Amino acid sequence: MTLRIGILGASRVAVYAMIAAAKDVEGVEVVAVAARDPARAWAYADHHNIATAYADYRQLIDAGDVDAIYNGLPPNLHAEWSIAAVEAGKPVLCEKPFALTTDDVEAMLSAEERTGQLIMEAQHTFYHPRHARIREIVQSGLLGKISSITSRFDVPIAETPDEIRWDGAVGGGALWDLGVYPMFWLRATMGQEPELVSAAHALNAAGADIWSDAAFRFPCGGRGAIQCSMQRDFAAWLRVEGDRGSLFVSNPLSPSVQTLTLTVDGETSEETFTSRPTYAFQLEAFRDAVLNGAPVATRGNDSLKTIRLLSDIRNMASKG
């Protein structure tokens, strides 16, 4: 059986997260796209060889030849249209951040339970073999007692009138767009839930954070920290320090730089993994969950925990 997917939003992220990934995954086909501007919808469909375009999100959700939905809309629309999709009997792969408030996430989880349809969060890095190895190294005790785990993700994003990431009203900002990854990496890598200790940010006039920093402590006693910025030069890494060794991961998102550097008891080694994109592994996980009932980790209460922490960072930083 082929899983026929419709894309909500003629977005940039859908090009690599869904359209390119679908070409690399068996049993999956992108069959439709919806955008509120008809000309944009059809231009996007023509450019990417998608058979059907809709000028209304509801029409795509209700289409009989669409089995599942990829929600690549701005973050403030994730809850509304993911809920609409599952209520129409369509499982959803929803882009990060899952939603912008814990109330919205809880409404999404309630809709999942009510309809029996999956809403999976698109935390694509989790499904790559390198990230499985990262979790194994840290949670097995190979590094000994963990003293710190830190992560940074900076991407210079031009502030232009049509760049929604500089618009706080729709869920823009460094924390929601970039910081969601380091926050998830800390949680997934440690296998523990951190306690927020401090947070700071700088906001623009539209309410988007230009940069955000936060510090945490874990039940094991280790410290944690994340940093993200839309103005600094590109930087992406994860570092874990323990009393027996350390782990450094350069660019945890890259589809081509799939290595990690491990030091244990003074001996340093580098491990290399497949350069197959993380998005392909994620789409396989979504396909298998929908067609075969396979479990997925990035959903439900796990997504709620990430959004709760991001909300707490915003609130604490706003209080100074």
Residue-averaged pLDDT: 97
- Helical region count? 9
Low-pLDDT windows of residues: none
Give me the side-by-side strand order of the main sheet.
8-9-10-7-11-12-13-14
Secondary structure: number of strands: 14
CATH level 1 class label of the largest domain? Alpha Beta
- Helix proportion: 25-40%
- The helix/strand series, from N terminus to C terminus, equals EHEHEHEHEHEHEHEEEEEEEHH
CATH topology of the largest domain: Dihydrodipicolinate Reductase, domain 2
Shape: globular
Topology:
Blueprint: E1 3-8, H1 12-22, E2 28-34, H2 38-47, E3 52-54, H3 57-62, E4 68-71, H4 78-87, E5 92-94, H5 102-115, E6 119-121, H6 129-139, E7 146-154, H7 174-190, E8 195-203, E9 209-217, E10 223-229, E11 235-242, E12 245-250, E13 259-264, E14 267-272, H8 278-292, H9 300-318
Parallel strand pairs: 1-2, 1-4, 2-3, 4-5, 5-6, 7-10
Antiparallel strand pairs: 7-11, 8-9, 9-10, 11-12, 12-13, 13-14
Helix pairs in contact: 1-8, 4-5, 5-9, 7-9
Question: Any overview of this molecule?
Answer:
The chain is α/β, with parallel strands linked by helices. The protein folds into two domains: 3-124 and 281-299, NAD(P)-binding Rossmann-like Domain (Rossmann fold, 3-Layer(aba) Sandwich); 129-275, Dihydrodipicolinate Reductase, domain 2. 35% of the residues lie in helices and 27% in strands. It has nine helices and 14 strands. An eight-stranded mixed beta sheet has the order 8-9-10-7-11-12-13-14, with helices on one face. Strands 3-2-1-4-5-6 form a six-stranded parallel beta sheet, sandwiched between helices. A hairpin with a 5-residue loop joins strand 8 (195-203) and strand 9. Helix 1 packs across helix 8 (278-292), helix 4 (78-87) runs parallel beside helix 5 and helix 7 packs across helix 9 (300-318). The radius of gyration is 19 Å and the shape is globular.
